[in-house]
UniProtKB/TrEMBL annotation:
This is Transcription factor GAMYB. It comes from Zea mays (Maize). The gene is LOC100272446. Residues 1-20, 257-285 are annotated as: Disordered. GO terms for cellular component: nucleus. Keywords: DNA-binding, Nucleus, Repeat, Transcription, Transcription regulation. One of its GO terms (biological process) is regulation of lignin biosynthetic process. Pfam families: Myb_DNA-binding. Residues 1-15 have a biased composition (Gly residues). Residues 11-63, 64-114 form the Myb-like domain. Residues 14-63, 64-118 form the HTH myb-type domain. The keyword Transcription applies.
Length: 367
DNA sequence: AATTAGACCAACCGCAGGCGG
DNA sequence: GCCGCCTGCGGTTGGTCTAAT
Protein backbone atom coordinates (compact mmCIF):
# COMPACT_ATOMS: atom_id res chain seq x y z
CA UNK A 1 0.00 0.00 0.00
CA UNK A 2 2.87 2.30 -0.46
CA UNK A 3 2.81 5.41 -2.51
CA UNK A 4 6.18 5.01 -4.05
CA UNK A 5 6.93 1.37 -4.35
CA UNK A 6 8.63 -0.83 -1.83
CA UNK A 7 12.11 -0.06 -0.71
CA UNK A 8 12.39 3.37 -2.24
CA UNK A 9 14.99 5.48 -0.58
CA UNK A 10 14.43 9.07 0.29
CA UNK A 11 16.96 11.75 1.10
CA UNK A 12 19.67 10.77 3.52
CA UNK A 13 19.31 7.09 2.75
CA UNK A 14 16.03 6.89 4.55
CA UNK A 15 13.71 4.18 3.41
CA UNK A 16 10.20 4.93 2.26
CA UNK A 17 7.26 2.80 1.33
CA UNK A 18 5.66 -0.12 3.06
CA UNK A 19 7.06 -1.43 6.30
CA UNK A 20 8.45 -4.94 6.52
CA UNK A 21 7.95 -7.30 9.44
CA UNK A 22 11.59 -6.90 10.36
CA UNK A 23 11.20 -3.13 10.53
CA UNK A 24 8.10 -3.48 12.62
CA UNK A 25 9.97 -5.71 15.00
CA UNK A 26 12.79 -3.21 15.35
CA UNK A 27 10.36 -0.44 16.09
CA UNK A 28 8.35 -2.53 18.51
CA UNK A 29 11.46 -3.56 20.39
CA UNK A 30 12.63 0.01 20.57
CA UNK A 31 9.33 1.24 21.98
CA UNK A 32 9.28 -1.65 24.43
CA UNK A 33 12.67 -0.60 25.72
CA UNK A 34 12.35 3.17 25.62
CA UNK A 35 8.69 3.92 25.45
CA UNK A 36 6.89 6.14 22.98
CA UNK A 37 8.24 9.48 21.86
CA UNK A 38 11.67 10.66 20.80
CA UNK A 39 11.04 9.08 17.42
CA UNK A 40 14.11 10.49 15.82
CA UNK A 41 16.18 8.48 18.26
CA UNK A 42 14.85 5.28 16.73
CA UNK A 43 17.09 5.62 13.72
CA UNK A 44 20.07 6.48 15.85
CA UNK A 45 19.58 3.60 18.22
CA UNK A 46 18.41 0.90 15.83
CA UNK A 47 19.25 -0.21 12.33
CA UNK A 48 15.91 1.17 11.20
CA UNK A 49 16.37 3.50 8.25
CA UNK A 50 13.14 5.40 8.75
CA UNK A 51 12.59 8.99 9.71
CA UNK A 52 11.07 9.75 13.07
CA UNK A 53 7.85 10.84 11.51
CA UNK A 54 7.44 7.57 9.72
CA UNK A 55 8.16 5.65 12.92
CA UNK A 56 5.61 7.61 14.86
CA UNK A 57 2.99 7.04 12.21
CA UNK A 58 3.72 3.36 11.92
CA UNK A 59 3.50 2.94 15.67
CA UNK A 60 0.36 5.03 16.07
CA UNK A 61 -1.53 3.50 13.21
CA UNK A 62 -0.41 -0.12 13.23
CA UNK A 63 1.82 -1.27 16.04
CA UNK A 64 0.59 0.25 19.23
CA UNK A 65 -1.42 -2.05 21.47
CA UNK A 66 -5.19 -2.04 21.72
CA UNK A 67 -5.73 -1.01 18.14
CA UNK A 68 -8.92 -2.35 16.70
CA UNK A 69 -8.70 -3.28 13.08
CA UNK A 70 -12.22 -4.57 12.61
CA UNK A 71 -14.74 -2.60 10.55
CA UNK A 72 -16.52 0.26 12.24
CA UNK A 73 -19.62 -0.74 14.12
CA UNK A 74 -22.85 1.16 13.47
CA UNK A 75 -22.37 2.86 16.83
CA UNK A 76 -18.90 3.98 15.88
CA UNK A 77 -20.09 5.20 12.52
CA UNK A 78 -22.74 7.23 14.19
CA UNK A 79 -20.27 8.69 16.63
CA UNK A 80 -18.00 9.69 13.80
CA UNK A 81 -20.82 11.39 11.95
CA UNK A 82 -22.04 13.21 15.00
CA UNK A 83 -18.61 14.32 16.11
CA UNK A 84 -17.73 15.40 12.61
CA UNK A 85 -20.93 17.38 12.47
CA UNK A 86 -19.96 19.12 15.67
CA UNK A 87 -16.28 19.78 15.21
CA UNK A 88 -15.47 19.14 11.56
CA UNK A 89 -12.31 17.53 10.25
CA UNK A 90 -10.66 17.18 13.62
CA UNK A 91 -9.68 13.57 13.08
CA UNK A 92 -7.31 13.32 15.97
CA UNK A 93 -9.88 14.67 18.36
CA UNK A 94 -12.56 12.43 16.98
CA UNK A 95 -10.30 9.42 17.26
CA UNK A 96 -9.76 10.11 20.94
CA UNK A 97 -13.39 9.31 21.42
CA UNK A 98 -13.32 6.00 19.63
CA UNK A 99 -11.36 3.45 21.53
CA UNK A 100 -8.70 1.72 19.47
CA UNK A 101 -9.30 3.77 16.35
CA UNK A 102 -6.77 5.99 14.67
CA UNK A 103 -7.25 9.40 13.18
CA UNK A 104 -6.10 8.07 9.83
CA UNK A 105 -8.68 5.33 9.90
CA UNK A 106 -11.46 7.75 10.70
CA UNK A 107 -10.28 10.21 8.12
CA UNK A 108 -10.23 7.50 5.47
CA UNK A 109 -13.65 6.35 6.49
CA UNK A 110 -15.06 9.84 6.30
CA UNK A 111 -13.45 10.74 3.01
CA UNK A 112 -14.68 7.58 1.34
CA UNK A 113 -18.13 7.97 2.74
CA UNK A 114 -18.30 11.67 1.99
CA UNK A 115 -17.26 11.20 -1.62
CA UNK A 116 -19.82 8.46 -2.08
CA UNK A 117 -22.63 10.54 -0.69
CA UNK A 118 -21.51 13.55 -2.63
CA UNK A 119 -21.61 11.55 -5.85
CA UNK A 120 -25.08 10.35 -4.98
CA UNK A 121 -26.18 13.93 -4.37
CA UNK A 122 -26.86 13.17 -0.71
CA UNK A 123 -26.14 15.43 2.24
CA UNK A 124 -23.11 14.40 4.28
CA UNK A 125 -25.15 13.37 7.30
CA UNK A 126 -28.23 11.18 7.50
CA UNK A 127 -31.33 13.14 8.53
CA UNK A 128 -31.45 11.81 12.07
CA UNK A 129 -27.80 12.65 12.69
CA UNK A 130 -28.35 16.04 11.13
CA UNK A 131 -31.19 16.61 13.57
CA UNK A 132 -29.05 15.67 16.52
CA UNK A 133 -26.27 17.94 15.39
CA UNK A 134 -28.69 20.81 15.01
CA UNK A 135 -30.18 20.13 18.39
CA UNK A 136 -26.80 20.15 20.03
CA UNK A 137 -25.88 23.34 18.30
CA UNK A 138 -29.17 24.93 19.22
CA UNK A 139 -28.52 24.00 22.83
CA UNK A 140 -25.08 25.46 22.47
CA UNK A 141 -23.62 22.28 23.84
CA UNK A 142 -20.08 21.75 22.79
CA UNK A 143 -18.78 18.50 24.14
CA UNK A 144 -15.28 19.65 23.43
CA UNK A 145 -15.44 22.90 25.27
CA UNK A 146 -13.44 23.07 28.40
CA UNK A 147 -15.92 21.43 30.65
CA UNK A 148 -13.83 22.19 33.68
CA UNK A 149 -14.54 25.85 33.24
CA UNK A 150 -18.20 25.15 32.57
CA UNK A 151 -18.52 22.96 35.59
CA UNK A 152 -16.71 25.42 37.79
CA UNK A 153 -19.09 28.13 36.68
CA UNK A 154 -22.14 25.99 37.21
CA UNK A 155 -21.02 25.01 40.64
CA UNK A 156 -20.10 28.48 41.66
CA UNK A 157 -23.63 29.54 40.84
CA UNK A 158 -24.94 26.61 42.83
CA UNK A 159 -22.77 27.47 45.79
CA UNK A 160 -20.63 24.40 45.32
CA UNK A 161 -16.90 24.02 45.14
CA UNK A 162 -15.35 23.50 41.74
CA UNK A 163 -15.54 19.82 40.83
CA UNK A 164 -12.23 18.07 40.50
CA UNK A 165 -13.65 15.42 38.14
CA UNK A 166 -10.41 14.50 36.57
CA UNK A 167 -11.03 10.82 36.30
CA UNK A 168 -12.89 9.18 33.53
CA UNK A 169 -16.30 7.98 34.48
CA UNK A 170 -17.94 4.96 33.06
CA UNK A 171 -21.43 3.84 33.58
CA UNK A 172 -21.69 0.17 34.27
CA UNK A 173 -24.53 -2.16 34.15
CA UNK A 174 -24.94 -3.30 37.69
CA UNK A 175 -27.97 -5.48 37.50
CA UNK A 176 -27.71 -9.06 38.51
CA UNK A 177 -24.30 -8.51 39.99
CA UNK A 178 -22.88 -7.94 36.54
CA UNK A 179 -20.24 -5.29 36.43
CA UNK A 180 -19.59 -5.44 32.77
CA UNK A 181 -20.73 -2.60 30.63
CA UNK A 182 -23.61 -3.49 28.41
CA UNK A 183 -24.34 -1.43 25.41
CA UNK A 184 -27.25 -0.40 23.36
CA UNK A 185 -27.60 -2.43 20.27
CA UNK A 186 -29.42 0.11 18.23
CA UNK A 187 -27.76 2.74 16.11
CA UNK A 188 -28.88 5.62 18.24
CA UNK A 189 -26.92 4.48 21.20
CA UNK A 190 -24.05 6.30 22.71
CA UNK A 191 -24.39 9.37 20.62
CA UNK A 192 -24.00 11.63 23.60
CA UNK A 193 -21.60 9.69 25.64
CA UNK A 194 -19.08 12.43 25.50
CA UNK A 195 -21.41 14.97 26.84
CA UNK A 196 -22.39 12.71 29.64
CA UNK A 197 -18.88 11.89 30.61
CA UNK A 198 -17.39 15.29 30.17
CA UNK A 199 -20.17 17.07 31.94
CA UNK A 200 -20.78 14.82 34.82
CA UNK A 201 -21.88 16.73 37.85
CA UNK A 202 -19.71 17.09 40.88
CA UNK A 203 -19.88 13.83 42.67
CA UNK A 204 -22.03 13.72 45.76
CA UNK A 205 -20.60 14.71 49.05
CA UNK A 206 -21.11 12.38 51.96
CA UNK A 207 -23.92 14.60 53.13
CA UNK A 208 -25.86 14.71 49.91
CA UNK A 209 -25.22 11.09 49.20
CA UNK A 210 -26.41 10.03 52.62
CA UNK A 211 -29.79 11.47 51.83
CA UNK A 212 -30.21 9.19 48.90
CA UNK A 213 -30.94 5.55 48.64
CA UNK A 214 -28.23 3.21 47.62
CA UNK A 215 -26.07 4.61 44.87
CA UNK A 216 -28.54 7.09 43.54
CA UNK A 217 -27.24 10.26 42.13
CA UNK A 218 -28.99 13.47 42.97
CA UNK A 219 -28.89 15.63 39.87
CA UNK A 220 -29.99 18.69 41.77
CA UNK A 221 -26.45 19.16 43.01
CA UNK A 222 -25.27 19.73 39.50
CA UNK A 223 -26.72 23.18 39.37
CA UNK A 224 -28.64 22.20 36.31
CA UNK A 225 -25.62 21.17 34.33
CA UNK A 226 -26.58 17.58 33.99
CA UNK A 227 -30.18 18.39 33.40
CA UNK A 228 -29.36 20.13 30.20
CA UNK A 229 -26.52 18.11 28.90
CA UNK A 230 -27.74 14.68 29.79
CA UNK A 231 -31.19 15.20 28.49
CA UNK A 232 -29.98 16.42 25.18
CA UNK A 233 -31.01 14.19 22.38
CA UNK A 234 -34.14 13.03 24.06
CA UNK A 235 -36.27 15.87 22.95
CA UNK A 236 -39.51 14.71 24.41
CA UNK A 237 -37.94 14.55 27.80
CA UNK A 238 -36.40 17.97 27.95
CA UNK A 239 -37.50 19.58 31.13
CA UNK A 240 -36.38 22.67 32.92
CA UNK A 241 -35.63 20.92 36.16
CA UNK A 242 -36.07 17.19 36.07
CA UNK A 243 -35.91 15.36 39.30
CA UNK A 244 -33.88 12.54 37.97
CA UNK A 245 -31.25 11.86 35.43
CA UNK A 246 -32.44 10.51 32.15
CA UNK A 247 -29.43 9.62 30.12
CA UNK A 248 -29.99 8.63 26.55
CA UNK A 249 -26.68 6.92 26.23
CA UNK A 250 -26.65 4.94 29.41
CA UNK A 251 -25.65 1.37 28.73
CA UNK A 252 -28.11 0.06 31.22
CA UNK A 253 -30.02 1.47 34.07
CA UNK A 254 -32.24 0.52 36.85
CA UNK A 255 -34.51 2.90 38.60
CA UNK A 256 -36.20 3.23 41.90
CA UNK A 257 -39.86 3.89 42.16
CA UNK A 258 -40.83 7.28 43.52
CA UNK A 259 -41.63 5.91 46.93
CA UNK A 260 -38.24 4.27 47.05
CA UNK A 261 -39.71 0.87 47.59
CA UNK A 262 -38.58 -1.11 44.62
CA UNK A 263 -35.72 -1.25 42.23
CA UNK A 264 -36.81 -2.03 38.71
CA UNK A 265 -34.50 -2.94 35.88
CA UNK A 266 -34.44 -1.01 32.68
CA UNK A 267 -33.00 -3.71 30.55
CA UNK A 268 -30.36 -2.77 28.10
CA UNK A 269 -30.98 0.90 27.91
CA UNK A 270 -32.22 3.95 29.62
CA UNK A 271 -35.00 4.92 27.34
CA UNK A 272 -38.72 4.98 27.87
CA UNK A 273 -39.21 2.54 25.08
CA UNK A 274 -36.76 0.07 26.41
CA UNK A 275 -38.41 -0.02 29.75
CA UNK A 276 -42.03 0.19 28.86
CA UNK A 277 -41.69 -2.31 26.07
CA UNK A 278 -40.82 -4.85 28.69
CA UNK A 279 -44.11 -4.29 30.38
CA UNK A 280 -42.59 -2.89 33.53
CA UNK A 281 -44.37 0.40 33.31
CA UNK A 282 -48.10 0.46 33.84
CA UNK A 283 -49.87 1.64 30.70
CA UNK A 284 -50.25 5.36 30.53
CA UNK A 285 -47.92 6.02 33.38
CA UNK A 286 -44.71 7.90 33.03
CA UNK A 287 -42.50 5.72 35.05
CA UNK A 288 -39.74 8.28 35.09
CA UNK A 289 -41.70 10.98 36.79
CA UNK A 290 -40.53 11.30 40.31
CA UNK A 291 -38.31 8.31 40.00
CA UNK A 292 -34.61 8.29 40.60
CA UNK A 293 -32.28 6.54 38.29
CA UNK A 294 -29.75 4.31 39.85
CA UNK A 295 -26.57 3.78 38.01
CA UNK A 296 -23.08 2.77 38.65
CA UNK A 297 -20.01 4.82 38.07
CA UNK A 298 -16.65 3.33 37.64
CA UNK A 299 -13.58 5.41 37.65
CA UNK A 300 -11.00 4.14 35.24
CA UNK A 301 -7.45 5.03 35.88
CA UNK A 302 -6.29 7.28 33.08
CA UNK A 303 -2.78 7.18 31.73
CA UNK A 304 -2.40 10.76 32.80
CA UNK A 305 -4.58 13.30 34.37
CA UNK A 306 -6.91 14.84 31.94
CA UNK A 307 -9.26 17.71 31.88
CA UNK A 308 -12.88 16.86 31.54
CA UNK A 309 -12.84 18.05 27.97
CA UNK A 310 -10.37 15.34 27.13
CA UNK A 311 -12.62 12.63 28.45
CA UNK A 312 -14.81 11.21 25.82
CA UNK A 313 -16.75 8.55 24.03
CA UNK A 314 -14.10 5.96 24.21
CA UNK A 315 -14.03 6.29 27.93
CA UNK A 316 -17.68 5.54 28.11
CA UNK A 317 -17.36 2.41 26.10
CA UNK A 318 -14.00 1.03 26.78
CA UNK A 319 -14.12 -2.06 28.89
CA UNK A 320 -12.02 -1.52 31.92
CA UNK A 321 -9.50 -4.28 32.45
CA UNK A 322 -10.07 -6.33 35.58
CA UNK A 323 -8.78 -4.69 38.66
CA UNK A 324 -8.46 -1.33 37.03
CA UNK A 325 -11.67 0.20 38.14
CA UNK A 326 -13.80 0.78 41.14
CA UNK A 327 -17.48 1.20 41.50
CA UNK A 328 -18.35 4.69 42.54
CA UNK A 329 -17.10 8.03 41.45
CA UNK A 330 -14.22 10.23 42.26
CA UNK A 331 -14.01 13.32 44.33
CA UNK A 332 -10.29 13.15 44.32
CA UNK A 333 -8.44 16.30 45.29
CA UNK A 334 -7.58 18.48 42.39
CA UNK A 335 -4.20 17.40 41.11
CA UNK A 336 -1.62 19.32 39.25
CA UNK A 337 -2.02 19.56 35.51
CA UNK A 338 -1.18 16.53 33.44
CA UNK A 339 0.81 14.80 36.12
CA UNK A 340 1.04 11.04 35.99
CA UNK A 341 -1.37 9.01 38.05
CA UNK A 342 0.22 6.19 39.93
CA UNK A 343 -1.72 3.05 40.75
CA UNK A 344 -1.22 3.71 44.42
CA UNK A 345 -2.49 7.27 44.15
CA UNK A 346 -5.48 6.25 42.11
CA UNK A 347 -6.45 3.37 44.36
CA UNK A 348 -6.12 5.51 47.46
CA UNK A 349 -8.32 8.22 46.04
CA UNK A 350 -10.87 5.72 44.91
CA UNK A 351 -10.94 4.05 48.30
CA UNK A 352 -11.34 7.40 50.00
CA UNK A 353 -14.24 8.19 47.80
CA UNK A 354 -15.83 4.83 48.18
CA UNK A 355 -15.60 5.08 51.92
CA UNK A 356 -17.68 8.23 51.78
CA UNK A 357 -20.53 6.48 50.06
CA UNK A 358 -23.14 4.72 52.12
CA UNK A 359 -23.50 2.15 49.41
CA UNK A 360 -25.50 -0.93 49.98
CA UNK A 361 -24.44 -4.27 48.68
CA UNK A 362 -27.66 -4.50 46.81
CA UNK A 363 -25.81 -4.59 43.54
CA UNK A 364 -22.62 -6.14 44.64
CA UNK A 365 -20.79 -2.88 44.97
CA UNK A 366 -18.55 -4.04 47.69
CA UNK A 367 -18.20 -7.59 46.52
C1' DA B 1 -10.91 -13.97 -18.62
C1' DA B 2 -9.97 -9.17 -19.10
C1' DT B 3 -11.06 -4.60 -18.02
C1' DT B 4 -12.73 -0.87 -15.32
C1' DA B 5 -14.44 1.89 -11.54
C1' DG B 6 -14.93 2.53 -6.94
C1' DA B 7 -13.61 1.50 -2.26
C1' DC B 8 -10.24 0.93 0.94
C1' DC B 9 -5.99 1.66 3.11
C1' DA B 10 -1.10 2.90 4.19
C1' DA B 11 2.02 6.25 3.95
C1' DC B 12 3.94 10.70 2.62
C1' DC B 13 3.94 15.79 2.75
C1' DG B 14 3.59 20.40 4.48
C1' DC B 15 2.45 23.07 8.18
C1' DA B 16 1.92 24.60 12.91
C1' DG B 17 2.81 24.58 17.72
C1' DG B 18 5.57 23.52 21.79
C1' DC B 19 9.89 23.61 23.90
C1' DG B 20 14.63 24.28 25.07
C1' DG B 21 18.97 26.61 24.12
C1' DG C 1 12.96 37.27 20.21
C1' DC C 2 15.15 33.85 17.30
C1' DC C 3 16.38 29.36 15.91
C1' DG C 4 16.36 24.47 15.52
C1' DC C 5 14.35 20.25 16.83
C1' DC C 6 10.54 17.37 17.73
C1' DT C 7 5.89 16.10 17.53
C1' DG C 8 1.24 16.02 16.00
C1' DC C 9 -2.30 17.08 12.72
C1' DG C 10 -4.87 17.31 8.44
C1' DG C 11 -4.64 16.88 3.48
C1' DT C 12 -3.31 14.19 -0.21
C1' DT C 13 -1.46 10.53 -3.00
C1' DG C 14 -1.15 6.20 -4.95
C1' DG C 15 -1.16 1.04 -4.48
C1' DT C 16 -4.25 -2.90 -3.75
C1' DC C 17 -8.59 -5.12 -3.50
C1' DT C 18 -13.13 -6.21 -5.17
C1' DA C 19 -17.30 -6.14 -7.55
C1' DA C 20 -19.44 -5.04 -11.76
C1' DT C 21 -19.39 -5.15 -16.70
Amino acid sequence: MARSGGGMEGSGGLKKGPWTQAEDKLLRDHVRRHGEGNWNAVRRETRLQRCGKSCRLRWANHLRPNLRKCPFSPEEERQILLLHGLIGNKWARISKHLSGRTDNEIKNYWNTRFKRRQRAGLPPYPPDVERQIKLLRAQNVNPFADADADAAHANASAGLPAPPLLYDMQVFHHLGGSQQPSFHQDGSAAAFGDIVSSRLPPLPTARTQAELHSNQFDTSISGGLVDQSMLIGDEHLLRPNPSMVKVSSMPALSYREPDGSRMLPAHGAGSDGDVSSLGQCPPGQDLHRGATWDFTFAAVKPAKRRTASEVGFSDMFAVAPPGDWFGGGSTAPSPGPSSAVTDEEFNLEMQQFMSMLPLSDEHGWNA
